[in-house]
Amino acid sequence: MASPTATKGKFKFSDKTLLSIIGYIIMTLLAIVCIVPFILIISSSFTDEMAITLNGYQIIPTVFSTEAYSVLFKYPKDMIAAYGVTIGVTAIGTVLGLFLTAMTAYVLSRRDFKWRNQFSFFFFFTTLFNGGLVPWYLMMNALEMKDNYLALVLPLLLNVFYIIVMKSFMSSIPDAITESAKIDGATDFGIFIKLILPLSKPALATIGLFLALGYWNDWYNALLFIGKSEMMPLQYYLYRMLANMDGLRKAMMASGMAVNFAMPTESLKMAMTIVATGPIFLVYPFIQRYFVKGLTIGAVKG
Amino acid sequence: MSKSGFWHDVKKYRALLLMLAPAVLFFLLFAYVPMAGIVLAFKQYNYSDGIFASPWNGLNNFRFFFESGDAWRVTRNTALYNLAFILVNNLLQIVAAILLFEVAGKWFRKITQSILFLPYFISWVVVGAIAYNMFNYNVGTINVALEWLGFAKIDIYNTASYWPFILVAVTAWKALGYGTIMYLAAITSIDTEMYEAAEIDGANIFQRIFKITIPNLMPTLIILVLLAIGNIFRGDFGMFYNMIGNNSMLFSATDVIDTFVFRSLTTNNEIGMSAAAGFYQSILGFATILLANYAVRKYDKDRALF
Q: I need a surface site. Which of A6, A115, A205, B127 has the fewest CB within 10 A?
């Protein structure tokens, strides 16, 4: 940091210091704006229901209470089921999607493959033009996707943008590796599995995390295709509960809660939001840099 | 190409073709087959006949969509919201990136960047919960604050005129970290010799920002803006749906093509009309993305999409 400099006998800040101060103030304000909503949710989830009804949601709990969480964990059946669905869908979708993305990208990155441009265009065209929601929705239904876990896995499995990013990463792997392995008699699939995949670890980590985040945060496909409550993924379950607390009340009663029990609805909504987002907060410090890497690859490649 | 040559190539590349097969099947099934379903827009759909056997009804679906006045309303909303998002998001992100690059100490930059990036990681459902926390009439923090300051409460969820500002703010909030990191990467790649030369020439820091940093960011900015304009008729369904939902009080100011199509399909079951609206959006989107790509191509050939 530049220090204040004295000019013409007067004490004067240098332009660098001035900008520094402006920068610290504005960036601190922006950071506060970004973090305060999360603090609001956390505080609200730990506030006594009565206090919320009287005073509203506040940034610091007026009356501290863990009642919302104890209610949530007293009857955790639905929440656990939703967690199970989300974890299963995220794990299967990420592994399968990553494998298919990499395999597709590898073929498209092979300079000796005669039709690489045609196939690239075949994939890319789908980002320019599509049939819209309605034909796709009807076709998914025709494929028996209603109340089917495949409806949560398939739509996010392959993404043209991820294929392109992966392809440009693999294009930077020297051709000589593929060529010398071929001379040694390796098959194309063998080369992909044994040589290309291990060399692509950084790109696999980044794309894999993007895929996993997409699956974890997906609620849209459940909105369209999942009606059974035990099949709902976490985010959609949260959506339903936020939109319809009566549904929650019924579900809780069905799982054995006393009928005249005064349920903490407002604090419970916030507690559920925290529980549904918790894993992302927990892994965020560790995974963040992979996303930054992915974005900066995108920025450089355009 | 002769036929035998073609089959010879198929044999030669059979392993690679097999490796491509899953992805090809995937996009055939989930992207190209639905494109054929566009015929629905010209049909009077009924479930018993199915997509291809239902009777044709010419342009009636389109007539219905346009004559209801919905077409103009949702098209205008979609385009105006996206324009506002492009303007506000890029401006904020560039300012944040420049400030982070020019002034911040290393630890401050790292922590700030992490905090700004956090909203990118949460689902729109969680953003909806945050909005509820802030905007609810009885218990929302905004009204708590207004009352504390001695003002009257405001009924945000029943007042359409607040929502354009709210939606722009929420979108900016969620996209800030993402864009800041992209622009920061672009600034970091600027040749430091330029800055050193400017410093020797006695340029102050503001001159450096306006004469070096911003002009060097222009290519990135122009490309990102042009590509975003290419998608100007595609609404962010997740954002609109979780912020507005089925609150019809707000539709005049917040309904976009995507939410309109979704509602026509799932709530009103107007298959033909929603397919027509979707087709209309696809055509508009296709045309704008071609135009945008043409513009990018003129500006910088290497950065064009195709």
A: A6
